[in-house]
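subagent[fold] <- orchestrator: predict structure for attached chain, return tokens only, no commentary.
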Amino acid sequence: MENASERPSTSVEDYVKVIYDLQERGSGPVTISAMAERLSVSNSSVSGMLRKLGELGLVSHRRYGDVQLTETGDKAALAVLRRHRLLETYLVEALGYSWDEVHDEAEILEHVVSDRFVDRIAAYLGHPAADPHGDPIPTREGDVPERETQLLSAAEAGTTGIVVRVNDSDPDLLRHLAEQDIGIGMRIELVERRPFGGPLIVRTGAPGEQRDRALGLVAAEALWIAPAPAQESRGESGGQGGAE
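subagent[fold] -> orchestrator:
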């Protein structure tokens, strides 16, 4: 079992985690500029770290090309993501944090807690498959639960699904979604896409309490949905929505 003192440096862990996260969320090839934006550093800083990561055997990257993790880099990223996402879950379920408060706390703690401590958290929580934002939690062996999902922003009008994942990188956005009563497990229907980059009109709520609202593109790009259960889909034809 690995102790915190035996792991890669904090900066190395942050970099491989960001690379994996950008790959996982399907936002296209991972580029130096995308990494610099996520890490709030300069492109030259990213280039310098990528050379180090390459020497460590964690990434493959050609000049002006996209960045990819090696098998070793994947393993390192999944280990830190497991710690991060289990810590977020523990902070919410055991300590009463809200979902917009936990990301920064977990960013600090993920580098100092032992694997034994994280395993105890997992057991205490019943080995959850996802964190409070719906991000899948890797197993100790590095397996990641797979789900059929799509970004709400990429869905066609008329699509109905269940919100299963929310981008947790912006606390202000998480607070906005909470204020709009949009969260994990909610049934949501994309009613209309307004032209010229306008908001999406979505329908949410339980039967008899449904409401339509405008949802900005930034928020829609932060929400992943999974297909609604078959019984809900049948209910839609009769004008009935699913439960939140």
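orchestrator: received. Logging for downstream: The radius of gyration is 19 Å. Confidence is low (pLDDT under 50) at residues 233-244.
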